[in-house]
Amino acid sequence: GKGDLESVRLRFRHLTQFEDYQTADMVFDSGKGQYVATIPGAFIVPEWDLMYYVEAVTKAGDGRMAPDMEEEMPYVIVPVKR
C-alpha cells in the first residue's frame, strides 16, 4: 500500500534525446485517492511533444516504473497542440 512507499516521482522531458528527464515529486491527494504532480506550463512548448513516466520506490528500496517496460513502451507520449 501507499504506506510502504518512500517516494513517487513524475519524470518528464521533451521528446528529444538531447535532454535529461526532469523530476517532480508526486504527493498523495486523499480527495482523489491518487498521486498527483504538476508539470510547469512554461515547460510545454510547441516545438516538442512531451514524454513522461512514473517512478515509485518503496522503503525497502524496491522500484517500479509505470508504464511497465515488460508490458509496453516504458513512457507515455503526450502530443502538444500546435
Any idea what the radius of gyration is? 14 Å
Please report the number of helical segments: 0
Q: How many distinct beta strands?
A: 7
State the oligomer: single chain
Fraction in helix: under 10%
What is the distance, rounded to the nearest whole angstrom, between the alpha carbons of the first and last residues?
40 Å
Gross geometry: globular
Strand content: 35-45%
- Unreliable spans are none
In round numbers, the mean pLDDT is 93
- List the secondary-structure elements in sequence, H or E: EEEEEEE
Largest sheet: 5 strands, antiparallel
Description of the molecule:
- The chain is mainly beta and 82 residues long.
- It has strands at residues 5-14, 22-25, 27-29, 34-36, 50-58, 63-66, 76-78.
- Strands 1, 2, 5, 6 and 7 form a five-stranded antiparallel β-sheet that branches.
What's the gist of this structure?
This protein has 82 residues and is mainly β. It has no helices and 7 strands.
List the helices and strands and how they pair.
Blueprint lengths: L4 E10 L7 E4 L1 E3 L4 E3 L13 E9 L4 E4 L9 E3 L4
Antiparallel strand pairs: 1-2, 1-5, 3-4, 5-6, 5-7
